[in-house]
Amino acid sequence: MSTILVKNGIYRNHSVTNVQFPLIKGFQTGAKGGFVTVDSNGYFGPDYGKVRIKVQDINDIEYVDGESMATQAQAVDNKVIHLETDEEVMERIGTRFSILNEMTKASINGDVRAMIVVGPPGVGKSFGVQEELEKASLFDTISSRRVKHSIIKGAMTPIGLYCTLYNNSDANNVIVFDDCDSVLMDDLSLNILKAALDSGKKRRIYWNADSSKLRNEGIPDNFDFKGSAIFITNIKFENVRSKKLQDHLEALQSRCHYLDLTLDTMRDKFLRIKQIFRDGDLFRNYDFSQETGDEILTFMDENKDRLREMSLRMALKIADLTKVSSNWKALAESTCMRHG
Questions:
Q1: Which of 31, 53, 170, 264 is deepest in the core (most CB within 10 A)?
Q2: Which CATH class is domain 87-260?
């Protein structure tokens, strides 16, 4: 029987840190996340034998009598998975964000007419898209012409979605829906969105109901949408359990390009932050040393399971605290971490 080291796990709300167990079954994922099955070997008391210990991801465990988990391949669900090194993770994530930039350029040029971008909050999904749009509209801004892109944030009603699409329906217009996940929860909004994101040559959108709002604003009850649309969301479509919603989301996926930024674990999110820090973009507006930046990243890594979130916003919050006090770590523990 192999021996496994659980570097960071939880069993029945009790932390399990750097403890070795006889392994019964390797890393698996279930409805509530990842876990390993081990022989507790008396660690949790005499009444416990085989137990499942929750772990954030596969890198929280290590075989004691074999190669490091960072370089070893393990069979999961009868498939051999290559366990990525930190450098490989950062390269994978960097490639995905480069693809996002390229696809945004293609949307601006009208070569890509519809794209869905999926990733967790606070990892810079919107930043690259907005940067490319601002570059493309620089001359329009300088000459005070109408900018040909719009970024829409927050909740939106079906009629609001219809009007927004109409107002940005010309060719070469790009509309970005950022954090508008409420659209995905409404049948009428979803049907309008499906029409806008359709891959057909002609995308006609209809409003088949009387509306004083449309009359007052001079908007017709149908129009051709000729622009491009980018929908940025935190919702990973494959993880949605509602069968009805799944059908809608599958229809959306079939109509447009779907880019998953593959930031599925706490480790992925942290390495994304580390990647931006290494490129020199994370703390470029802060007047402190490289050593302070390194210290912030180390602090976040060591406390990743206690931080309220692992995000670029959190890194900047902690950076702000370094300007407040030399005792910034204590301030971060009080304001940026979960307690109890």
A1: 53
A2: alpha beta
